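User: Can you predict the 3D structure for this chain?
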Amino acid sequence: MTAPADEAAAGVEVVCLGESMVTFLPSRPGRLADVPSFGRGIGGAESNVACALAAAGHRTRWVGRVGADGFGDHLVDAVAAYGVDTSAVQRDPHRPTGIYFRTATDRDADGFEVVYYRAGSAASAMSPRNMPLDELAAGRVLHLSGITAALSADCLALMRTLTARRPGRPLVSFDVNHRAHLWREAEGPRVLLDLARGADLVFVGEDEAETAWGVVGAEAIREALPEPSVLVVKQGAAGAVVFERCAASFPTPPLPELGALPPDPRASIADGAEDPVAGRGKKPRSGPDTVAFVPAPRVDVVAPVGAGDAFAAGFLSATLRGLPVRDRIRHGHLMAATALTVPGDLGTPPSRAHADRLAALDADAWGKLRLGPGWTDVTQPKGAADQEVRTP
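Assistant: Here is the predicted structure, written as structure tokens:
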């Protein structure tokens, strides 16, 4: 079901652009050749972010293209069911909706298999000529992913248009999402670096930066990406590092003055404290960085797919709320845990009060936090909401 465009457009906070596909999840672990059946779900980095943000109470819009087919119907209905505005999604009568099959293991694990049926998909025809640029610029944040740039030359042209710096654009959030198998040309990593340099807020995994750019370590990644006002370097189960430029300025409509937030008095140097002199003597930027590291809580992982998208959603949610950097990272970790503890890409977020309570834990309690399947369930018996805080 699609909300009317005029109603949906009122006050949209985050617009997400990208391809979404119907995904088929295996009924049990094993090779694709051995799996007897699959369950149907939805998958797409950008629509995952839109759905997670909508489920967390934000007004979001997903913009993309799908086929005029049953899979397209299912995809639009499933995304809209999360409360996402899908009024700007285009239907293509000549190209199909993309689908894919995958195994149950981690993307980086031995034996992982994924088979895409997306060549010539409706989404691969997105371009600056046929996409609604005014709809894309209507939110406070425009969230993009490097996956879109790899789909076709037209998609790359659209991404270059949207990441070009110009007055009055929304805050541009960009998740690098390097997928080597999607790029036909060797310059894919260089393209991703160029696109990231045009964004205001960038998410990148430390491992993917090493694979794509040969850059090792969070500080070296910041050296390679001095332009974004905020750079989030994800370090897997270890945690995440955020580089944030002091006195950061953001496009209108304005977001909170992120760089002007005072250091959180509850934070320690190892858990979210800001170092105002970090970055001095390095490659010139418009101001020095504050740097914050926050460890990730321990998670009983069911499936790793979708955690990066969920982290981005949690971080963006806290950014929209004007929270301090430590809490932005912690909300990213908590949202990632919702995806890690379910079989598919999307979990159920905790209530805002529940997430805020966990994000406010002191460093010792945060270090003891362990999250397992069902940890966001608000229907648990009284007192059970604290069961996720466990000691070793």
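The mean pLDDT is 85. The chain has 13 helices and 16 strands.
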